[in-house]
From TrEMBL:
Its EC number is 3.5.4.19. Its cofactor is Mg(2+); Zn(2+). The gene is hisI. InterPro entries: PRA-CH, PRib_AMP_CycHydrolase_dom, PRib_AMP_CycHydrolase_sf. Belongs to the PRA-CH family. Catalyzes the hydrolysis of the adenine ring of phosphoribosyl-AMP. It is an enzyme of class 3 (hydrolase). Zn(2+) binds at C78, C95, C102. The keyword Nucleus does not apply. This is Phosphoribosyl-AMP cyclohydrolase. Homodimer. It comes from Pseudomonas fluvialis. Mg(2+) binds at D77, D79, D81. Its main location: cytoplasm. Residues 30-104 form the Phosphoribosyl-AMP cyclohydrolase domain.
Amino acid sequence: MSDWLDDINWNSDGLIPAIAQDYQSGRILMLAWMNREALTLTVAEQRAIYWSRSRGKLWRKGEDSGHVQKLHELRLDCDADVIIMQVEQLGGIACHTGRQSCFYKVLREGAWVAVDPVLKDPQAIYHAGHTHE
């Protein structure tokens, strides 16, 4: 049964934005994109699997870093064009910069200021040459 996939308003590229939110704290961890295959696999494997627009391929979150996002709940917004996932972020790090969340900059007096600590040096997370999952 793939009827639920047909209820989604995919964009012109066949994608939908997917927000990952910590299932306990409610903190927004990141936003990425999914196509039909990525969303189908996310549900099947109960872990976040995205579509990498820059690399043009599936991206299993945590495949390089070990920072897997275990799916707890999947929701679709009222316009059926945004997915939000309640996830358990393994390792407590979602961002390739080594921070808990990709949303770590705050606008202060006209400038973006990094306010969250780096929990783990990205060089220690990724193989040489990898800068982003």
